[in-house]
Amino acid sequence: MAISVPSDISFFVSVHIPKTAGTTLGTILNRCCKYRLLMDYPGYDGNEYFTADPLIAKNRDFIAGYYKGIHGHFNVCRHQSVFPEAKFVAMLRHPVDRLISQYMHELNDPTDSMWHKYLTSGERTIVDMAEHRVLRRAMAQHLEGRPIEDYDLLMLSENMGMSLMLLQHTIGNLHIGTHFGEPPQIPRENMGNKRQRSVVIDDKTKSAIYDRLTEDIELYKKASELFTKKARKYL
Prior knowledge:
It comes from Pseudogemmobacter humi. Keywords: Transferase. The protein is α/β, with parallel strands linked by helices. The protein has twelve helices and five strands. A five-stranded parallel β-sheet has the order 2-3-1-4-5.
């Protein structure tokens, strides 16, 4: 059965969870929306991550009319009260792989990040990261405040092709082939090609990480079930 794709793009809010191919998704959305994508990265320090920006709320009609959507690092509550009619989407990744990717990023972060100092000095390990109150539930932290079933689409970075097909069914025709060729040559952004340090994570360590990411593991399982149901229904 051919997938049904709305001709017009519905206004959407895309929650970018770190290390889930969200940078790649943002690039795709921005180009396909002809650069009318509002990038919103308020940071994690303070209430801005969770609460609506007064300027965005004040200009909601202009934003919803001019921009095609919003994409960035924020908790869903930041925008769902301002744009209740929007399509809400996000990209997920297996929590163990997501944490390992963040570990590699922090290990090679050239800035003065706390975790870079901890990891390069040997003061902390990747298992310590998996125990951190925020990192162990990174996906849940971004998505909580909206029932998982109420998201219009939760994509899986492990299945980017099908995710993009379902995304077009959800928000409208992005004309991905026009912008990225046929078959699409999807850009792979923020892949860490310049990393100086690389560590092989053994199975024992992966198992220890898995045991500590219980909330995100459960969330990922539910999202995977919903993704499979949508794929069977529409693809």
